[in-house]
Amino acid sequence: MTDQSTACPACGGSRLTSVYTKDDVPSHSCLLLADEDEARAFPKGDLRIAFCERCGFIMNTAFDPTKNQYSARYEETQAFSTRFQEFARDLAKRWTDKYDLYGKTVLEIGCGKGEFLVHLVEQGAGAGIGIDPGVRPERITSPVAGRLTWITDLYSERYAHLTADAVVCRHTLEHIAPVGDFMRMIRAALGDRTDIPVLFELPDVLRVLQEAAFWDVYYEHCSYFSAGSLARLFRATGFEVLDVSLDYDDQYLLIEARPSTVPAAGDPLPIEDDLATLRVGVRHFQREVATTLNRWSEMLWRGHQRGEKAAIWGSGSKGVSFLATLGPAADLVRYAVDINPHKHGMFMAGSGHRIVPSEWLREDRPDLLIIMNPIYRDEIAGELTRLGVDTELRAV
Ligand SMILES: [Zn+2]
Predict the structure, then answer these.
(1) Predicted confidence (pLDDT) per residue in 65-104, tens digit
(2) How far, in Å, from the CA of 60 to the mean position of ligand 1?
(3) Residue 288 covered by a domain
(4) pLDDT (tens digit, 9 = 90+) per residue, 103-129?
(5) Domain region containing 229
(6) How many CB atoms lie within 10 A of CB 363?
(7) Ligand 1 centroid, distance to 27 Cα (angstroms)
(8) How far is the CA of 230 from the centre of ligand 1 (A)?
(9) How far is the CA of 187 from the centre of ligand 1 (A)?
(10) Ligand 1 mean position to 154 CA, how many Å?
């Protein structure tokens, strides 16, 4: 099926192929809801995931930005995980060294709760400016807090006057629909300062396609990139791509670039040559997604028939999407465990599952615990040992 009505926001191409369709998914994944009924009645939106045949960009053509409101109630941080913290600290160190950010000012667009900017300044950057509607400066306890400036807002042309020696943007571009306009806005703000490193991190869609990972496709993520489609966007919007790589067990893409004054500067890197691989991935996702869904659903029903109890670990976007997509089998999941204390006692958008601390497992003792990100398996197994809880662990 080809949707002729929409142009690709990354390249302007008009040949979009449908990848995946789902109606009535929660329009937010990380908003905290104190009331179960409010959580279940949470506003819904549709997924019309499409693939641009020209540049490989994948998007939700039914995305309506007015359904997304980011605010202080938004609880996206993964920083309560040691594994994620170590990764972020290590990345901050690597970028500080590689781009000589010592003593320099870094602007972070979409800084979330601000942890990464703190890491950068602790590693040697001189100062940081963080912009995000969900930033919570009162949570920052680092000794470098005095060198950080926070702006509680979405980045826009209003902030083009902010000058910095580097621009960082992590896990933000996938929440933005007009990705071409967004990159051109950043490029325009940088003007003739072609020495500024521009460093982005976001999920890699190729892995999502190859694993038919339906839990990684959700409303908040309206834009999905591979190494190639991301680099093509950067090159098309006035950047020279210095490096593109995969990290965090190949879940995340890192792109390092700088403003260019000539169109499409530099030769594409070998990793960018992925259009054929993407097409294969799209077909694989289309073929396998129903099977993957049924496998989880049947596992839960079989366990239920044996009188077993099941729960998930991870109440973030993947958990919300997993439960919202499972259908009736989601009712067989008793609750979601999360290590972020700010989420405890709250309810997940859409399915309305309660979010509980890990100590809860001591009392309830589920027979099956589904881990929403395999990278946390060791961390979770360690926590279960500490709690003295023996349960079957399965990662998506
Ligand atoms: Zn395109």
Answers:
(1) 888 776 666 666 676 788 888 999 999 999 999 999 999 9
(2) 13
(3) no
(4) 999 999 999 999 999 999 999 999 999
(5) 82-277
(6) 8
(7) 24
(8) 10
(9) 19
(10) 25
